[in-house]
Design a protein that fits this description.
By secondary structure, the protein is mainly alpha-helical. The protein has one domain: Amino acid/polyamine transporter I (Up-down Bundle), CATH 1.20.1740. It is 73% helix and 0% strand. 45% of the residues are buried. It is a multi-pass membrane protein. Its main location: membrane. Keywords: Membrane, Transmembrane, Transmembrane helix.
């Protein structure tokens, strides 16, 4: 009997062991072993980019995106903050803008692993963060994606309007000097930009815009050298300028700085088309290298530009350069050309969404349709720019309404939602940190928009009054 019992125990043990070898059954041990052996999805290995950008090319694109008309508006921003507040505020705003770009790209790379997709656009990243976030928010994924998509189009379309105003203002400044008997109106100057802008916006590949960005970066350095020469020429003492401006003007400073530094819409296309996207984040990384250069230049131009010209500084400091000097006039013309070359890069953002929406709907007239869409968008931008030509107020309004929302609020919300069930860090510091960023963005949104719109209304009323007086004088004559 003892021998029989021992035989049964051995058989029972053997039959249990056979369960794991049965193909119809898997123990938890075998599943765990399989998950350990399975290689995690790496989105970088699955990216097939037809024309990938190098690391240097990506830095060039980011610099060109940020070193545009915004940096020349920094002295006007310092006018609304004072030297001390402006210097400290530029550093803080630069850190926050860099951080929001960082968390957006980080979430995008992580959610690519969850979705098993090689790359995601800005809008797709926001939608996927909700889809793979808390269960209660998952149904909102598609709505958020569509919302951000259209917000991007409106935001960067408004940037195009700012660029048209800048080019038109610079052209007017130069042409009025050499044609004093026939001064050009700002509306006519904006209209003259239409045909060249339509032509350059027919370029449809980001890689082919790299040479334009490279040339623009070289030219903008020339403009900076010329501008800084006049800025540092016979600088007045610091005591003649406000160190701390009235707090009611701070919203204009904040929204102008946000407009100047934010390149949130170009970030994801640049990262997605890198040959080595793993080099975008990290230290030093493409993002950090570009933003350190940007913040340094912004601080220098803003501080010393306001110190030189004080309350007379204009929406672009190049417009303050002396009219009698040929070199100064050439700087204005070069800067207008730089913004012209940058226009196509900013135009790429709304067109990327439109092209993506049209995927699968192509017809044999697709080339003609693309030409018409691009022509219509540029024409609309020129028309709106001609209607609101006050550069300083337009920049402040765009920064307050669009970039504070798109560049600060949305990345903070997306990062919080995606990490809600994953990891909010010790003491939920991710939540509190993003809450602070959200509050800052809302302050910039409401206060900056209010002050900018108020200024636009007063400015529009002033123009109307001037026109009325002009007609009255013409009638009397």
């Amino acid at each position: 009997m003892a021998k029989t019992k021992e035989s049964m125990e051995i058989d029972n043990f053997k039959s249990t062991a056979d369960l794991t070898s049965n193909p119809g059954f898997q123990s938890s041990l075998s599943i765990a072993s399989k998950s350990v052996d399975e290689k995690p999805y790496n989105p970088f290995e699955h990216r097939t980019v037809e024309h990938p950008n190098s690391t240097i090319g990506s830095i060039v694109h980011l610099l060109k995106c940020c070193l545009g008309s915004g940096i020349l508006a920094m002295p006007a921003a310092f006018k609304n903050s004072g030297l001390v507040v402006g210097a400290i505020g530029t550093l803080i705003a630069g850190f926050i803008c860099t951080h929001t770009v960082h968390i957006l790209v980080k979430v995008s790379q992580e959610v690519c692993v969850d979705a098993k997709k090689p790359s995601l656009s800005f809008a797709e990243t926001c939608g996927a963060a909700f889809t793979y976030g808390p269960k209660k928010l998952q149904p909102w994924g598609n709505f958020i994606k569509v919302l951000v998509d259209y917000s991007m189009v409106v935001t960067y379309f408004s940037v195009l309007c700012v660029y048209v105003v800048f080019i038109g203002s610079s052209m007017k400044e130069v042409m009025d000097v050499y044609m004093p008997d026939n001064p050009l109106s700002i509306q006519a100057a904006c209209a003259l930009t239409l045909v060249p802008l339509v032509l350059i916006c027919q370029i449809r590949n980001l890689k082919y815009l790299v040479p334009f960005s490279a040339v623009a970066n070289i030219l903008i350095l020339v403009v900076f050298v010329i501008t800084l020469y006049y800025v540092f020429l016979d600088l007045p003492p610091i005591k003649e300028r406000e160190l701390v401006a009235g707090i009611t003007q701070w919203p204009l400073f904040l929204s102008t700085v946000i407009f100047a530094m934010e390149g949130i819409g170009v970030v994801m296309p640049v990262e997605n088309e890198m040959a080595k996207p793993q080099q975008f984040l990290g230290c030093p990384g493409v993002l950090n290298i570009a933003m350190v250069i940007v913040i340094t230049l912004y601080g220098i131009v803003g501080f010393f530009g306001y110190l030189q010209y004080g309350d007379f500084v204009k929406g672009s400091i190049t417009l303050n350069l002396p009219e009698e000097d040929v070199i100064a006039q050439s700087a204005k013309a070069l800067m207008a050309f730089v913004i012209f070359l940058s226009f196509a890069l900013q135009f790429y953002v709304p067109m990327e969404m439109i092209t993506r929406k049209r995927k699968g709907k192509e017809s044999r007239y697709e080339n003609l349709i693309q030409i018409v869409i691009r022509t219509v968008l540029v024409t609309m931008a020129v028309a709106i720019a001609a209607a609101f030509p006050n550069l300083e107020l337009v920049i402040s309004f765009v920064g307050a309404v669009f970039f504070s929302t798109l560049g600060l609020l949305i990345p903070a919300v997306v990062d919080t939602v995606y990490n809600w069930d994953n990891n909010l860090g010790p003491f939920n510091y991710v939540l509190w940190k993003n809450l602070i960023i959200g509050i800052i963005s809302l302050i910039a949104l409401f206060s900056g928009a209010y002050v900018s719109v108020q200024g636009m209304i007063e400015d529009f009323g002033g123009h109307s009054l001037e026109n009325h007086e002009f007609h009255d004088n013409a009638t009397l004559t």
